[in-house]
Fold this protein.
Amino acid sequence: MRLLVVEDESRLASALQRGLAAEGFAVDVAASGPAGLDAARHGGYDAMILDVMLPGLSGYEVVRRLRAEEHWLPVLMLSAKDGEYDQADGLDCGADDYLTKPFSYVVLLARLRALLRRGAPERPTVLTVGDLRLDPARRRVTRADAEVALTAREFALLDYLMRRAGEVVSKTELLDHVWDAGMETAPNAVEVYVGYLRRKIGRERLETVRGAGYRLAT
Amino acid sequence: MRLLVVEDESRLASALQRGLAAEGFAVDVAASGPAGLDAARHGGYDAMILDVMLPGLSGYEVVRRLRAEEHWLPVLMLSAKDGEYDQADGLDCGADDYLTKPFSYVVLLARLRALLRRGAPERPTVLTVGDLRLDPARRRVTRADAEVALTAREFALLDYLMRRAGEVVSKTELLDHVWDAGMETAPNAVEVYVGYLRRKIGRERLETVRGAGYRLAT
DNA sequence: GTCCACGCTGTGAAGGTGCTGAGGAACTCC
DNA sequence: GGAGTTCCTCAGCACCTTCACAGCGTGGAC
């Protein structure tokens, strides 16, 4: 599960990153509104934790723009309890849930899990690329209707590649998102797992782009 | 009997959870409107206790949406007596009964029992997955028409797995829903009980998905 | 054609994950 | 009080996954 945390207070941001990583999430942090918006557009995240007070663009604005562009990423909003901003505003803008600072970490986690279980309303529950189908809930992958058995890591890798099908994805990106960030895994691990995947889903389907990364053919 | 309590004040929520659990109900708690709505949609509860003031979506809105989707789960609404919200509003939205805070626990229980006696008109009373049948009210399980004797914990585990048949359910999720949340039970307990269940309902029916959880084959 | 950096893969070690039997604590029913 | 349940922890085992390493193959620049 990949999360995007958009928060400019660096102490809170890194506390969240550490805590959530310990729960098994892959966490990226953006420190401004524009950076967050951009990451949300391209990053293939499963949910976003979004502060309201941000440099550049407010959290409200970020959600509004995302929704206007038909991105249905689940958003959990955080706001300082200074009365200026109202919970209703956030939800009207299209956030899915709302927490007021200071908040309990346990509560954050519970809400986040609920959000992830619910998923983005308009997101197809099954990913399809060519004759490949991946069902995250059932944790099943089929290739031309034949079941493919994958290990946890292989599954996570394919999941990510399918969400970004057609794009070139660099090894660094894969290490950040499929492996735990900060795990110091050698880039060769990616090559190894790409190899495993190719044996299972078909060699030609997962192209190497020399010097840049890999691309899952659409 | 399974209840869903949707209440964001954690003290009240956990008091209700403890009290109702002591009466023999299985109680899940959701702490926001969206989370409650979602749980009500998928959880197969026998009744819902729903606060009006909730983050995310008001209790009114939750009931209205449920009814619009043809869910007829009995709903008992709770509201603070601040005059802003009116009893009539709640009932207009589709709630079945209404209590004003502060309320007596005995009254709550009495109303709740009345509600459960009435029951949801269209509710399926028995869960069926393959040749397994589980009747929550009678607390009975049969496998190919032969009765299976289960302990309380085994029953709760099978109940949850059957409600999510086909999906992969993680050990953490099982600990949260089948064991009391916050009980600090070791994940190994899940493995042990999965083992017990397998002996009783058939080994192959409950698959292990390594690194992810368990799946009850549909 | 030659060279070199990049990518691929077979091997194997290390550690992780899940299953099971044994047993202790708490509880209920005689 | 004793017998029987039930719940849960623990430790040991078997198997699987993950990943580092090293040697080989290959594409592309010249």
Remarks:
- Residues 30 and 36 of chain A are 5 Å apart (CA to CA).
- Confidence is low (pLDDT under 50) at residues 120-124 of chain A.
